[in-house]
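Standup notes, structure subgroup. Blocker cleared on the adenosine-5'-triphosphate input:
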Amino acid sequence: MKIIAIANHKGGCGKTTTAINLSACLGIKGQRVLLLDLDPQGHSSLGFGVFNEDARDLYDVFTGEVSIEEIILPGVFTGVDVVPATLTLAAAEHLPVRNEERDEQLRIHLQPIRERYDYAVIDCPPSTGLLSLNALAVADLVLIPVEMSLFGLSGIDHMYKTIALMRARHNRDIPIRLLPTLVDSRTRLCRQFLHEVGERFADDVSSVMVQSTVRLKEAVRQGAPIIAYDPTSTVAVQYNRLADELMLVLDAIPASGEDRERKSPIGQMKSAIENARAQLRKFSGEQKVTLRFYDLAGKDVRLAGSFNDWVPDQGVITRWADGVVEKNVMLMPGSYEYRLIIDGVWQEDPSNPEQVLNLSGGYNSILHVEEEHEEISV
Ligand SMILES: Nc1ncnc2c1ncn2[C@@H]1O[C@H](COP(=O)(O)OP(=O)(O)OP(=O)(O)O)[C@@H](O)[C@H]1O
Ligand SMILES: [Mg+2]
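Run returned:
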């Protein structure tokens, strides 16, 4: 069993939404998944329409009243079982346990069911209390959803510090993936945040981001994950890709329950993650395409095209270097039309002679992405 802890002490950044939808996507892929709700708010079971305020939860397991097997709600969705949470779980933060075992409770209780599941997904509460520490201590990977809003980035450094302490305490690496959530790339602020996250945490940022959409709220209200409620929506595709990415990354890492001797040093871990990413790109057929624009320093340059529903900079990572504006986008092989928006003015790409007339009487530039071509410069 590989364990993904979804954590961020900042509230409302999409932890529970991600836990529900990631679990469902892994389940649909034929994986055996256990979703553990560690938040006394109990929203994870709500997302599968199975919330019961009288249910037994991990508090009863930690006090030794019942075993974890006894509280599992089986088959809440294809391949997914749930360990529910209720308000009682809040008391688990104050259980009298020996200091050296404070954050080991979850590991101990998960041990007997490790073989029954391929993945455990843990929905952490919005705090770095004992419950979250238990999740980090047993995690093979920590997924940090980061809301792309004004205060979204403020908690990340604190999360990194907490994880660094856990790494030192347990003498093992705990890889981190940052997942941009509630992304609305139409707003300038959101694009700035995406840029900042890319610059500051480059290697740790997931290649997937989750856009902001009311469809997710509607799905929760129906007690269904988005992959069942609206399987063709963009956000269903995004969570599906996240599941693919995490499966590949985790495949390259020995589980925390496995022999300590097999643990890779951090450097090896990073290259394993890089390999997994490259494989993912090959697997999905998508390639990273880089468009470079010169002499546009100081200008606000955005990219919109048939590949991002003509929403400026949606799904585009921008980098600036020495007066060159670089636009990076993941694309399948094929031909695409695009335009640039320079300081708010839509126009064809002046450096690309290949153009077609568009419906409004202007010109769209044409971009060809061929198989195996790593980079395209125009
Ligand atoms: N991508 C999204 N688009 C639109 N709304 C979203 C998205 N992700 C989450 N939400 C909404 O934002 C709110 C907070 O999301 P969620 O409960 O998943 O966050 P959380 O981090 O688990 O919060 P808490 O810290 O309170 O546990 C919810 O109402 C949810 O429906
Ligand atoms: Mg939550």
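Discussed briefly. Residues 56 and 175 are 31 Å apart (CA to CA).
Next: hand off to the docking folks.
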